[in-house]
Amino acid sequence: MRRPLIAGNWKMNLGHADALRLADGIFAGIDVPPDRDCAIFPPFTSLQAIAEKLRSSPIKVGGQNCHPDAEGAFTGEIACSMLKAAGASMVILGHSERRHLLGETDAFVNRKVKAALAARLKPILCVGETLAERDAGRTADVVLGQVRRGLDGVATDAMRDVVLAYEPVWAIGTGKTATPAQAQDVHAAIRGELALLFGKPVAEDTLILYGGSVKPSNVDGLMAMPDVDGALVGGASLDEADFHRIVWFETPEG
């Protein structure tokens, strides 16, 4: 049985004082239901302080990125070991903003996935298509290709620590959201690809999150889909009340 995960990606927002205030508000205001998990991904400048603040909370803390090498002359980058030392247990990799704005390739993202696993960080591997690719009927080719290349060389038994996130690029920060049916179609295709790569038991156990303008008004419909196992939340994770409502999503079964 897959435990849903709601993950809040704060991106490049909030100075240190504001980040601590938001973490305080989330800690005080969100009693995470026992049947799901919650994680937040603050900027690196506040990660350690927030991890310490939330140490007694069920809310996990993660990094927004990592470099695949353990150390070296990589100005501005952060190693997996640094994230671990700061209190992170997870890391977001392959986010569309890094792929499209910073030119990260599938091969580079794959190196990061393997580095995170080696460091015992749980990677959230992001995949997704642009609007032009969707309009051209290439969603499956693009997304499943990113899955294959992003997980190349990952051992089957290591997949228990991997989370995937489907983020249609055209729905990130635009206010547009894939319909629950559109999300379900792609999530089901990803699960089918995982079954081909790693076997059906792994596919059935792997969490696949949806990311792309998730908010209180659409989370229930998305989470009602059988292959949607949680959400990677952007802007709404910066609003304490909105994030609380998303964490407390409701399904037809209650």
Topology record:
Blueprint: E1 5-9, H1 16-29, E2 37-41, H2 44-53, E3 60-63, H3 80-86, E4 90-93, H4 96-102, H5 106-118, E5 122-127, H6 131-135, H7 139-150, E6 163-166, H8 180-198, H9 200-205, E7 207-211, H10 219-223, E8 230-233, H11 240-247
Helix pairs in contact: 1-2, 1-11, 7-8
Description:
- The chain is α/β, with parallel strands linked by helices.
- The chain contains 11 helices and 8 strands.
- The chain has helices at residues 16-29, 44-53, 80-86, 96-102, 106-118, 131-135, 139-150, 180-198, 200-205, 219-223, 240-247; strands spanning 5-9, 37-41, 60-63, 90-93, 122-127, 163-166, 207-211, 230-233.
- An 8-stranded parallel β-barrel has the order 1-2-3-4-5-6-7-8, surrounded by 5 helices.
- Helix 3 links the parallel strand 3 and strand 4.
- Helix 1 (16-29) packs across helix 11 and helix 7 crosses helix 8.
- The longest helix has 19 residues, at 180-198.
- The mean pLDDT is 95.
Q: Any idea how many domains?
A: 1
Element string (H = helix, E = strand): EHEHEHEHHEHHEHHEHEH
The level of helicity is: 40-55%
The N- and C-terminal alpha carbons lie at a distance of: 16 Å
- Overall geometry comes to globular
Strand content: 5-15%
CATH class division = Alpha Beta
How many strand segments?
A: 8
CATH homologous superfamily label: Aldolase class I
Largest sheet: 8 strands, parallel, barrel
> What is the radius of gyration computed over CA atoms, rounded to a whole number of angstroms?
17 Å
* Mean pLDDT value: 95
Here the CATH topology equals TIM Barrel
The main sheet orders its strands as 1-2-3-4-5-6-7-8
- The CATH architecture classification is Alpha-Beta Barrel
Structural class category: alpha/beta
